[in-house]
Structure formats: structure tokens, C-alpha cells
Design goal:
Radius of gyration: 17 Å
Shape: globular
Largest sheet: 6 strands, mixed
Distance between the termini: 38 Å
Helix content: 10-25%
Number of strands: 10
Strand content: 25-35%
Strand order of the largest sheet: 1-2-3-4-5-6
Number of helices: 4
Length: about 210
């Protein structure tokens, strides 16, 4: 593995992408970040910035590609924009991890009926063995250990009494050739002050 570890930002906005000149300093695309080390690329979320990210980052020397999705809101899973998701030639395909409802969210968006014309099952470039997390799990990959944390991002789920589980955060501990470990944390969409529906959170101080 090369010692070089790169972090790139391709989309930093929430909710809606914008082409306004006022937002060009950091870009107008929604959540899309990339960590690259050796022949491995990790995409962190797949907002509208994922199109540019995949075009630039999927170079011929890349062998392993992982996509870690924090949650299934549209500004984090705009995969339809990225053609390389459909037709990449990665041996294992694009390996996806995400919060526990991710497969359901992607299935709704990519049903082939109303939101997008391509079904999820027809995206040949995606490894169908998605790894879904509640938060608190770890995943060991070559050269990197990934830890997950359950975020406070309210969801309307009668089975989730704490209103947790709406998103997860990732910590990537990447081991370099010399044994040094570099840690990167990606934590998006935490709302300490509100419950589902914009209601005030009475325990906001404790949660912080």
C-alpha cells in the first residue's frame, strides 16, 4: 500500500444541489467525499457530487471501491447521476455499506417506476451483497478498519423508541506502510435539537 492518503470533496451541500455562483467556492453538489489510499477508493455518500467523483477517481489503477452511505435521503443517494455505477468493470463491483434502511431506500428510488428508469437490480456495477448497519458494528477490510456509530437523525419509526437510527457515522482507521494509522471520521446529519416533524427535543443537552 502506498503511504499517500488523499481526501477529496466533491459535494458539501445538504438538501438541494445548486448551480449558483455564490456557492462555487466549495461547489454546489450534495454530499460526496472520497478517501483514496493505494489501489482502494472509499466514496462517502453519493449525493449529486458522485458523478464527478466517479469520473475522476475510477482510474485504471483502482481495484477496490467501497461506497459508504450515511442514510437514504435523496441528497445522499443520488446514484442515478453516476453512469460508472452501472457499467464499471471492477472485479467485485462497487461494494456498498450503509445504515439499516438503505436497501429499502434504494429500492424505492430505483424501482424503475416513477423516480428513475433503471431498477436497482439492473445496476450491474453494484455488488448486490450490501452490508447494512445499525451502528456500533465494525468492518475489517485490507488496510482499513471501519467503525460505525448510530447518529441522532430523527426517523418516523414506531419500532425505534429512541428516534435513533436515521443515519450512521463512519470512522476509517487506515494503516500506512510504516504502521502509522490515520483516522478519518465522516459524520453527517445529526440533529440534537429536534424530534421527527421539527418538534423540540427535550433531551438535547444530554444528547450533546
Amino acid at each position: 500500500m502506498e503511504n499517500k492518503i488523499e481526501l477529496a470533496l466533491y459535494g458539501v451541500r445538504g438538501s438541494c444541489a445548486t448551480g449558483s455562483r455564490d456557492y462555487m467556492e466549495l461547489g454546489g453538489d450534495t454530499s460526496s467525499y472520497v478517501i483514496r489510499h493505494g489501489d482502494t477508493v472509499h466514496f462517502l455518500d453519493a449525493g449529486s457530487g458522485i458523478r464527478r467523483a466517479m469520473i475522476k477517481e475510477l482510474t485504471p489503477d483502482v481495484r477496490n471501491v467501497h461506497m459508504h452511505i450515511s442514510h437514504g435521503h435523496l441528497d445522499h443517494i443520488d446514484m442515478g447521476c453516476a453512469g460508472p455505477i452501472y457499467y464499471n468493470k471492477l472485479p467485485e463491483g462497487l461494494q456498498v455499506t450503509g445504515y439499516r434502511y438503505l436497501a429499502e431506500a434504494l429500492g424505492v428510488l430505483f424501482s424503475g417506476k416513477t423516480s428513475w428508469p433503471v431498477r436497482l437490480g439492473n445496476m450491474a456495477g453494484i455488488n448486490k451483497d450490501m452490508k447494512l448497519f445499525q451502528g456500533g458494528e465494525t468492518l475489517n477490510l485490507p488496510g482499513v478498519r471501519i467503525s460505525t456509530l448510530e447518529n441522532y437523525h430523527p426517523v418516523d419509526d414506531e419500532n425505534t423508541t429512541r428516534n435513533y437510527g436515521g443515519s450512521i457515522a463512519y470512522r476509517l482507521d487506515i494503516t500506512k506502510d510504516n504502521g502509522t494509522v490515520v483516522s478519518v471520521v465522516y459524520a453527517s446529519d445529526l440533529e440534537w435539537d429536534y424530534l421527527q416533524g421539527g418538534k423540540p427535543q427535550p433531551e438535547s443537552k444530554r444528547l450533546r
